[in-house]
Amino acid sequence: MQPPERSPPPIVIVGASVRAAAFSAMRAGYAPRCVDLFADADLKARCSTIAVNRYPADLFAAARKIPAADWLYTGGLENYPTSIDRLAERGLLLGNRGAVLRRVRDPHELSRRLTAHGFAVPQCAAYADGLPCNGSWLVKRRGASGGMHVRPWLGQVLDGGATRYVWQQRIDGDPLAAVYVGAAGRAVLLGVTQQLLAGARRPAAPFTYAGSRGPLRLGRVLEAQFVRLGQGLAAEFMLEGLFGVDVIAQGDAIWPIEVNPRYTASIELLERWLQHPAISWHVAACRGGTLPHVKLIAAQPVYEKQILIARRSLEFDAATTSWLFDCNHDLRWPRVADIPSPGARINPGEPVMTVFADGSDQVQSSAVVAQINERLGENACW
Prior knowledge:
This protein is 29% helix and 26% strand. By secondary structure, it is of the alpha+beta class. The strands form four sheets. It has an eight-stranded antiparallel sheet with strand order 13-12-9-10-11-14-18-16, with helices on both faces. Strands 3-2-1-4 form a four-stranded parallel sheet, with helices on both faces. The radius of gyration is 20 Å and the shape is globular.
């Protein structure tokens, strides 16, 4: 007589968009219980999901109603350290607590620490007094994520007053994102990707994250700098689990810009390359201080994720949602993700869904985007 099969252990995942982390958790053998702002159709089809309307209050309120279990947060919630600490009283937090978040998300503190480790960092200012209004500086809203509230500083009037913003010197170069897993003051580099920004596709928010491409081939000098960067950040801030660092690269020099102390959007590309669920490394680091052994090799193939943006107002019906599901032949590694539910309404300039490709089928990826536009109507997405 065979013993009964054990049910996958639960893990609670909370955030504005948890689909990528939830799918990683399933590949790692967990049963995600999700609290999500968008609650797209593909997430609801595979995971227990609570959809909320108000960000971030409803996310934390809904999470408190789920039976206590180990939990983690994704994008945006790192800006609410007090709420994270309160929720951590109910179950084991797999990630960084409020004290760490307050320090590593403070651009002035981050700049001081990185400068002490010998890294070049952009200048920061708490006020715009005396700064040039010619776009050589950026203005960023405090508590934002994903580049959604980053603009060139042209002297414009700011909503909510200047105290809600920080100014940062603009650095020209290639926007990259490094991913690490940290524990006990140490860190392992998992890989580096190129960031795709919205740019002309979203004029009102040109620095908004719109996808990734990679992993990148790193020369010895650049790889050594990224390794040293992760080790320095882990030691200074005692970061636990997965974390990402946005940088601007100029040849073999890197300018660290921001730390995202949680599962980041580019991680799922590295998971496709490594063929390993990063959430398992995250859990091992947070529970037992264990770090993986990952050898960076010449990256082939290169993967890409592209976030499609609405050109015009869109409304999804059941047939279109079903058609998008049919685009996926491998649920572990879908070609189309973040699929809108029937009845979803998307405004111009808002994200629609995510499309994936690897180095062998870039043409096929373009064909999928063309098919989506044909299905939704001419010039639906870009």
